[in-house]
Specification:
alpha+beta, 2-methylcitrate dehydratase PrpD, 60s Ribosomal Protein L30, Chain: A, four-stranded mixed sheet, two-stranded antiparallel sheet, 19 helices, 6 strands, 50% helix, 8% strand
Length: 423
């Protein structure tokens, strides 16, 4: 069964209760990131340029507009701080691409929150499946999976909300195949978060256009000249979920830096040794991260967010890494951090997965300690909720976080989007 038919099958799948609960947690986290991201003044002119129509869909930071424009804006704001979740199976951001499309369209349709959550679960699962289907070849060619695979996920989620029939779903996916785009070279620019917005807007538009009867090639995804082959995809065999859903292993960010640093920082959380007793530190990481977040001598806070050695030195010396404010220019220049950083080695290790890290500490006594962490290790929903509830107040204040949490776990979509203006 080809990927298109797998997506058609997925669109009609019942969402297990545990999956829906996980999706609500991701919704809470993404919305907190979006409310905070909308306060970034750099995007103010972009916001004004998109607010060209009236509509029911709420935008982070205030305002309301049509579904497609709201999806574009909220997708961009939700990823603006680079503090939203990702999935290591395809190295993309399922929440950032899918939620803005689902919520914007759901408001237009006056959909129940439960149905919106189910649609988001379907879309996020599809985004991950699309990423696996496209595989490493697609990424190596320079495409960014949040933008490409994410667009297919957003499209399927919107198709679910609109209750499209099978033929319409196939057309929506085919339309998406001519729209999905995004290049990895944009990392670190304002276009990086725009990728999430473009994926979300594509999902809304492709599904709505298919609903009107717009047709597309049936082999637009995996045909001889379809999306995968023209975009260097691997065409890996991927099946719709039965019991185990990919979405249950989404990795949320609890450190305000590149996700490639997180396994290392989590490993060092188990370090109970004073810095002056450590004579050597060696970090082993998957080769993928060696040119992504291995800046040797960062000079700015943003560069420190992409430096394995600098962040490791911060952690060992007791600095917090959990807030965006923790990665300041001052900490990038801190003499004690820099001195320890320069004595830390980083080595690629193909035996490790992209979600894993191994940190070796050599103590002044000659003792060697090995600290390992795997971000794909599942925790209980209760433990995850606790960490997300502690993260959110650093983004949107405790009062706003409490209001958003109560809305997300409740039944009313309007109560959630009422929090989008930060209040």
């Amino acid at each position: 069964m080809g990927i298109t038919e797998q997506f058609v099958k997925l669109a009609a799948t019942d969402v297990p209760e545990a999956v829906a609960a996980m999706v609500r947690l991701s919704f809470f986290d993404w919305a907190a990131c979006g409310i905070a991201g909308a306060a970034d003044d750099r995007f103010a002119p972009f916001r004004r340029a998109q607010l060209i129509e009236e509509g029911p869909a709420q935008v982070f930071g205030g305002d309301a507009t049509g579904a497609a424009s709201a999806a574009l804006l909220n997708g961009t704001f939700g990823h603006a701080l680079d503090f939203d979740d990702m999935h290591f199976a395809f190295m993309g951001r399922p929440s950032a691409a899918v939620f803005p499309a689902v919520i914007a369209l759901a408001e237009t349709l006056d959909t129940r929150l439960t149905d919106a959550v189910d649609a988001a679960a379907i879309g996020m699962e599809a985004a991950i499946m699309a990423g696996l289907w496209l595989g490493r070849g697609h990424r190596s060619a320079g495409f960014e999976q949040t933008a490409t695979a994410g667009a297919f996920g957003a499209t399927l989620a919107c198709a679910r909300l609109l209750e499209l029939d099978k033929a319409q779903i196939r057309n929506a996916l085919g339309i998406c195949a001519s729209m999905a785009s995004g290049l990895g070279v944009q990392a670190g620019t304002m276009t990086q978060p725009l990728h999430a917005g473009l994926a979300a807007r594509t999902g809304v538009e492709a599904a709505l256009w298919a609903q009107t009867g717009l047709s597309a090639a049936p082999d637009a995804l995996d045909g001889p000249k379809g999306f995968a082959r023209t975009h260097q995809g691997d065409l890996a065999e991927v099946k719709a979920p039965r019991k185990e859903w990919y979405v249950t292993t989404i990795s949320h960010k609890f450190h305000a830096c590149c996700h490639g640093l997180h396994a290392m920082l989590e490993a060092l959380s188990g370090c109970d040794v004073q810095a002056d007793r450590i004579s050597g530190i060696r970090i082993r990481t998957h080769p993928y991260w060696m040119d992504k977040c291995n800046i040797a001598a960062p000079k700015t806070g943003q560069e420190a967010q992409n430096s394995l050695t600098h962040a490791a030195a911060m952690k060992v010396l007791g600095h917090s890494t959990q807030s965006l404010d923790d990665f300041s220019g001052a900490v990038a220049r801190d003499a004690s951090v820099c001195a320890l950083r320069d004595r830390i080695d980083v080595m690629p290790d193909e035996k490790l997965g992209v979600a894993q890290s191994l940190v070796t500490l050599t103590l002044d006594t000659g003792e060697v300690r090995r600290l390992r962490h795997d971000l794909d290790t599942q925790v209980t929903l209760e433990a995850l909720a606790d960490r997300l509830l502690k993260k959110a107040p650093a983004l949107i204040t405790q009062e706003k976080a409490d209001s958003l949490w109560q809305a997300v776990i409740g039944p009313d979509l309007d109560a959630v989007t009422a929090c989008f203006n930060g209040g």
